[in-house]
Amino acid sequence: FQYLKRFDHGCNLDTFYYRAGSVEGSPAECLQQFLLHCGITDPSWAELRNFTWFLNIQLRDCEASVFCNPAFVQDTLQGF
């Protein structure tokens, strides 16, 4: 949710890292973001769950990758 919210506001996601336990927005806002970005017009709860699960895994792997660390790559992969 936090990544999607920042993406919609045009924030630089290269320097953002999720902090475990941090809470932003309301459950309604969260659901609205997921519905907006999941790519399915009328998703079931299972489809929303799969979307959030997949997105979470991808973002976690991205945060853990040295190749996505702006301090390591500096400006060589801007916007990647």
TrEMBL record:
Protein name listed in UniProt: RN213 ligase
Keywords linked to the UniProt accession: Ligase
GO cellular component terms, A-Z: cytosol; membrane; nucleolus
GO biological process, one term: ubiquitin-dependent protein catabolic process
Matching InterPro entries: RNF213
Tagged with keyword Ligase: yes
GO MF term (any one): ubiquitin-protein transferase activity
Lineage: Eukaryota, Metazoa, Chordata, Craniata, Vertebrata
